[in-house]
Structure formats: C-alpha cells, structure tokens
Amino acid sequence: MRKPLNFKIEKEIPGKMGRAGVLTTKHGVIKTPAFVPVSTKATLKSLTPDQLESIGAQVTLANTYHLYLQPGDELVAKAGGLHKFMNWQKPLMTDSGGFQVFSLGAAFGSNVSKIAKRDEVQLPATFEQEDLKGRNISENFKPAKIDENGVMFRSHIDGSAHYFTPQKSIEIQHNLGADIIFAFDECTSPQESDHYQGRALDRTHRWAKESLDYHQSKENSERQALFGIVQGGRNEKLRKESAKVLGEMGAGSGPGSGFDGFGIGGSFEKEDMSSAVEWVNSVLPEEKPRHLLGIGEPEDLFMAIERGCDLFDCVAPTRIARNGSLYTKEGKINIINAKFKEDFSPIENDCDCYACQNYTKAYIQHLFKAGEILANTLATIHNVRFIVRLVDNIRESIINDSFENFKNEFLTRYKAN
Amino acid sequence: MRKPLNFKIEKEIPGKMGRAGVLTTKHGVIKTPAFVPVSTKATLKSLTPDQLESIGAQVTLANTYHLYLQPGDELVAKAGGLHKFMNWQKPLMTDSGGFQVFSLGAAFGSNVSKIAKRDEVQLPATFEQEDLKGRNISENFKPAKIDENGVMFRSHIDGSAHYFTPQKSIEIQHNLGADIIFAFDECTSPQESDHYQGRALDRTHRWAKESLDYHQSKENSERQALFGIVQGGRNEKLRKESAKVLGEMGAGSGPGSGFDGFGIGGSFEKEDMSSAVEWVNSVLPEEKPRHLLGIGEPEDLFMAIERGCDLFDCVAPTRIARNGSLYTKEGKINIINAKFKEDFSPIENDCDCYACQNYTKAYIQHLFKAGEILANTLATIHNVRFIVRLVDNIRESIINDSFENFKNEFLTRYKAN
After folding, report:
1. Is A392 in the active site?
2. Where do the domains of chain B lie, and which CATH numbers do they carry?
3. Is B313 a catalytic residue?
C-alpha cells in the first residue's frame, strides 16, 4: 500500500518539543509549521484560489459539515472531487464535521451539546458566526443529540434531520477527497466534569477506531491521509491517555500503519491550552504530524509551535478581517477608526501583501464605510498573509536556531487584544 | 496648451456613422468603441483593479456624486487623486454627478425630480439600487430641487443638504483627477413635455458653458478632458439643437478648443434610443469622441455603435451578475436555476474569462446558494468580460469590414430578455 503522506522532521528547537518539518501529500508539499486558512464552504471567503496561493497559503481546510449539507458531498464527488470543484490544486484538508455538529448545537444554549457558551471559554474558531445570522431558529432549538453510535443533528440551513457516524463522516470525506481528513470525534467543553469527559473520551476513541478501520478498508486510504483527534478536556490523565490510545491505535500492523497524523481538539480556556498541548505532544509519536485544531492567534501559535504542533487552522484572521480588524506587528487595529480617515500609509509599511503594496488605510476605510466587497478582499488578504508569513518566519527561526530570539522580539512588540 | 486627449478615427462602417478609433489620454490609450465598466465608489464591485485589467477593461468610470459624499473629493485629492487612491493606472472617467442627483430624487417618487419612475422607462443604469437598500428614508423624501444656478439635494447616506453648480461639479472632478470628466447637466425624463424639455435644455446648455469656462480657466484642463452632455429628451428638434450648441460651444478659439468630446444623456425608452442617437450624432462634430451614457446591453451596443457612438458605461453587467444573471451568446441565464445544480460545464464553453476557465456552473451555483462573496466575483468577471469582449469584437469587425455579418450573426443567436 502506498503511503498517502510523508512527514520528515528537519530541525528541532533545542531542549523543546518544537520542530520544523516537511509534509508531503498527493497534492504537494507543506513546510511545517504551517498555518492552514479555512475555506469553510469550498472557498476562502472573499478570495479567489489564485489570491490565496499568492499570499503563500500552502494548504487550505474545508468543512465537512457545511459541504455535506450544501452542495452535498456526492455532488462534489461527481464534480471530480473538492480540489477540482473549488479549483485548488495544492494540499487540502477536511475536518470530520464533529466540531460543527456540536458547536452549532451549543450556540443555541442547548444542554444536549457539550460545548459551553462562546463567551465563557475560548472556542476554537472553526465556526462561522455568519451561519447563524438571519436564521429563524428558536432559543430552544436543540440540533445535536449524541448516542453511542453517532450524533443526530439538524441542519442550520433548513432544520432537516441528519445522523453522523464515524463511518458516515469518513464516507463524506472520501467523496470530498481532501489530502488530509480527520476521524469523527466528540468535542467537549472544558467545563464538563471529569466523569463526563471520561465517557466522552471513550466514545471518541471508539469512533476513532471505527473511522480508521473504515478508512483503511477503502482504496482512498492510499491517497487520503487520516488524522485521529486527541480529546480529554483540561484533564492531564485523560489527555495523556487519549494521546497514547490514538498514538498506538492500529500501529504495529506494518510501516506507516495507524493514523497518519493527529489533531488536537477541544475547546480551551486560554490558560489551559499550553498544558493540554504539552501533555498531548509529550505522548504522541514524535514522527507524525500534529494539527492543533481551530487555533491561530499569534501568541497561541508561538506557544503551540514550541510545544511540538505542526499545523494550525483558524477562521479568526478571515472573520475579524471582515469586521475591519487588521493584524499589525503592534497588535490589531480597527481600520474604521477615525484616526485612519486621512492616513495615506499602508496598513503596515513593510508588509508584502497586495493590500499593503497598493492601498492606503484611508482607501480601505472608505471601502468599509461604503460597504464595498473589496474591503473584505483586501482585509482578508492582509490578515491571512500576516499569519501565514508569521508561521513561515517561525519556521525559518527554527531552521536558523533563532526561535527564542524571534519569539521574544515578536511578542514584546505585539500587544494581544 | 497641451491637449488632454487625442482622438483618431481608424476606420468607418461603410455608409453608416459607426467608426473604430483610438483615444489617447494622459493615462494611456482606449481603442474605441469601448465598454467602460463602472467603479461607482472607486472600486468595481467585488473585483480588484488587477482582475478588472485582466478582463480587458481599458478604462473605468467612477461616480462624482458618490465620491463627493464619501470619502469626499478633497480627501481623494490629498491621497494624490483617484488613480492613486483606487490603484488604477489606466484611463479613468468621472461623471458630473448630475444624473445621480436627479435619479436619487426620482427613486422616491418626488415630483421635483424630472426622471420618471424606473419601471416606466428604461433608465440609464448608472445607478446602484443598493444605494437605497436599508435606508430609512420616508416616501416623501424629496432630495433634489433645481433652480437656474444648480441643484439642491440631500445625501442618500445621511440626509445632509448639498448644492451642486456646474462650477462645483467641475471642482470636484478636478479634485478627483480623472482623465475624462463631464459637464454638469440636467437629465430629464422622456415623459416630460416639450415645453419643460426646452427649459431644461436651456439650463443644461448654460451649465455646459459654465462648466467649460471654469474648466478651461484651470491648469487641470491640460490633463483632464471635458465632455459636454447632449440632452433634449425624445424631441428631434431639441436633440439636434443640443448637439449643435454643444458641438460649437467654445470652438473656434483655437485648435482643440471647445469640448474634448460629448456625452449623450437622457433616460430613453427603448424604441426612442436609436433615433435620439442618430439625430445627435448626425450633428455632433465627427472628429470628437461620443459617449452614450448608461447603456450597455448587447442589442443597444450594436445599435449605438453603428450610429456613431464610441464609448459606453453601464452598471447592468455588474449589477445583474450579483443576482446570478449571466450573459451567454444565447442570452442571459440565471445560475441559480435548478437545471444547473449538477452542470459541470463552465458558464460558456468557449469563454476566455477566469470564471469559465476554472469553474463549473455547479460550483458557481453553490457559491450563490451559500452566500459566498466569490459568487459575486466570478459572476462579475464573466459578465464584464462578456461585454468588454463583445465591444472589442465589434471593433474588430469594423476594422475588418465585417460589422454587418458580425452583428447579424450575434443578434440572431442572442435572445435579449
């Protein structure tokens, strides 16, 4: 059996778990650590794939939940797969749909869902607020219901009922045909009891095994890599157990057996994230890539990279861009601010993105005030380029043995907000 | 005094007034006839200037009314002018603001305004419906009030009062700095009485003279060309009189004196348009370029080009694109139609646009259903490319002495709707 993925570690951060590597997929190479912009519904909002490629994106991640509901994974398969459908010929990922199934439930305050409210914890931002806007859904709408075999949920589009099992999630992801896909998991809130976390984790592990077995029974496993997702909330014992169980799952049945890599899932409170990542990565097999799901703020990227994470996806850079919030090396600015009205300098003087090379803050503010689509396009280009380049620069600092310097320099200047 | 514009006729349609020419501005050449996509608020909605250039646009037109209100023409001047502000280094036009001042009035049914309701006549589509959407403006809002010196109007954004005179319009257009600007005029409804048309026309001619005198008193006239706007409704006598008065205005005071070209304005009923254009162009000086304002449907383009018009601007291709209505050689299609759900062919098989080269109807329908911005971008690229290329092809047919063949072939196939 051909391997769908190859991962080679090129350099490590001395005395730490962090590393720079090269991930080879059937659609090309990803130099890690790498930021993965999110193309929720088979397009990165407001950009063409050409624009996405021109800002240095090596890979993008589309959402299984959204594409299953619309236009449908079978339609995408008929179209020749997601790469062709969306005109993206570079590496591509899909998530398992698990997170959306639960989070779209939680967003309505349902106690069926196990993710706490968005304002209480820092949720992985793989979820688009726009999905809920303008929908006529009552407060008591309870879309997600978990049983031992899967999750029953209702479409946020039309309320229709659907049932995801691990096999169903993998089937959909086979239809979509991304290079890297994820096992179906239950994403819990960090505020759940250890008792509930334990039960949910057992389920996630059983679902991981079902995902893996089903995947490996299909030819798709020769071209699509499957990542298992580590869960366990904020509990050290559970996190380490999850990393061990998934790390060993299916392994030993030959070279390259078991999962091709790992996702680290969960809804983290900021202060818990670094310990969770450290626990998990101290146990996961070192030679396989690790994707921290739904994380992408600069300070979190440094934290996670030095603790051994290789991949990161997050909708934050694109979502905040559409609200006029733009990254700079000093922190975020809001371009609508009155002080930029006659500011004829670019967002950042030394930024190499298309927006900064060609436009002033005054013009971008004008576009936002005028409600022009180009506002979103330019803001998105800048923010995604900022984060992609930041992670590329972190990689370079690892290769050049200057990670600590680069981190201190960047974080001293950057005011998170 | 250097001339801001040079126009050379290369070839004429035998026995007709139509011609192919080359218009040279301070920012480069426009091969005519040419379609001028509209960048209302200093951006062609949903495209970057790079995308606009890549679909063959030679020139774009921005709206004085909109830019005066936001971000303000003085701000644009401080930014270094509109070319620099919006990052468009090719030829650029601005209109006089007159049409918007009147049409934004008419849209609320005010009898102060002289343009009839949109559903009664075919209005030049230089006006964005979106401007009115979501605005909390009462039915009785009467934004425009004409007197002999100018027009008092209220901003559609915040209701603030403003007064445009010919001098004010030219001042604003000097601040914006486009290569081709227009004299301030009164755009009347074709349904007005001849008596009113006559009075309005006198005003338009007096305003044209004031525009011309003010323009020529400034250095800007060395780099910005001024077009006068012919009016006169559906009345042959008035139309011809207007063409004569404007054609001779300021002429004879030296080579290249008078207006640098002419706009043909007015709100046409479809059946009146061809006679109005014919009347006007039979009188206007042949050696100067003529811009038919607000017209851009394929059948109208053939009609106007063979009657001697050189330039056309229209928001229709971009506006209908955002509703999913797409040009094909057989007529318009609506991409949302159920029959395209699994249609994995491009909008047009032989179209050279980015959308057709890279995407299927099924994908574009998916983007529209999902409310994705890329839907607008791809639809706009296709429609603007369709119209720009059509006019380019008409030009080529004039050069090759095959205009009649090309016209018959195209119009036999194309079903206007």
Report:
1. no
2. 6-314 (3.20.20.105), 332-411 (no CATH)
3. yes
